[in-house]
Amino acid sequence: MPDPATRRRLTDDLLGWARGVRADLPWRATRDPWAVLVSELMLQQTQVSRVIGPFEAFLARFPTAAACAEVAVAEVVLAWEGLGYNRRAVNLHAAARRIVEEHGGRPPDDLTALLALPGVGPYTARAVLVFAYERDHGVVDTNAARFLARAAAGHRLDAAAAQELADTLVPLGRGWVWNQAVLDLGAQVCTKRAPRCDECPISGSCAWARASYAPPDPAQGSAGTTRTQPAFTGSDRQGRGRLVQALRTGPVDLARVADVTGWPEQPDRARRIADALVGEGLAEYVDGQLSLPGRST
């Protein structure tokens, strides 16, 4: 933990900076826990710029958990178009049904109950509590983890230590604005590569700066910040994406699955991907075809 004087300066500097740069994002204009949950699932592994349009369209189609829960999962997958990682759509549909069945149609305001929802992990659960219910938790994603390791601690943090520090730093009653500021700083200034330290609004209270940026970078290996994404081209993810996109237009004959995935010479690989989609609830086999659940002809 920073000493009390440094912590006060860190808080004042960060919140002062945030007042002038906070992005005008649609999910920041609401405290509806369903809308916040939708946004957080969409933002997992997807750039903010790609989420804005689909988020607004999705909520227009499914403004409540009940509206999402009452349709077939295929309808939710169709509404997820353009976001990728379609398993998130299946999880959101399952979560909506759980919310309706167990929580009266409103996402719970309890950490344990949120963590029990399909597709909801430690970050997403706390994000709902903070950004919908304005609780004083710290949210730790890769952007926040860099801030915590570099600015607050000055050394590498494991996941448990990062979460504990994040919770401790939240100013009383200011969980919403504080966490938005932390996330914005990590995304815009305290970046993974080439952090803009010379422009940083908290450089005077940053632990790494006060140590003259001595190597190694505290963010390296800290709380999952250095996870790398495997190459997309030629990957199973690429084939899955092609197949799901084709299924959005209608069923695919099993004889065409290899062609649709882009692997005409690898039918066994293509069928493995199709089997995986069926196992995950993203597709079903009906009469020699693969289709989105409930949309076979």
Structural features, described:
With 297 residues, the chain is mostly helical. It has three domains: 4-23 and 137-210, Orthogonal Bundle (Endonuclease Iii, domain 2), CATH 1.10.1670.10; 32-131, Endonuclease III, domain 1 (Orthogonal Bundle), CATH 1.10.340; 236-291. Helix content is 53%, strand content 3%. The protein contains 15 helices and three strands. It has helices at 4-21, 33-43, 48-61, 65-69, 73-79, 87-103, 111-115, 122-131, 142-153, 159-169, 175-188, 207-210, 236-247, 257-261, 267-279, and strands spanning 252-253, 284-286, 289-291. The chain has a three-stranded antiparallel β-sheet with strand order 1-3-2. A hairpin with a 2-residue loop joins β2 (284-286) and β3 (289-291). The longest helix has 18 residues, at 4-21. It is globular, with a radius of gyration of 21 Å. The N and C termini lie far apart (61 Å). 38% of the residues are buried. The mean pLDDT is 92.
Task: Lay out the secondary structure.
Elements: H1 4-21, H2 33-43, H3 48-61, H4 65-69, H5 73-79, H6 87-103, H7 111-115, H8 122-131, H9 142-153, H10 159-169, H11 175-188, H12 207-210, H13 236-247, E1 252-253, H14 257-261, H15 267-279, E2 284-286, E3 289-291
Antiparallel strand pairs: 1-3, 2-3
Helix pairs in contact: 1-11, 2-3, 2-8, 5-6, 9-11, 13-15
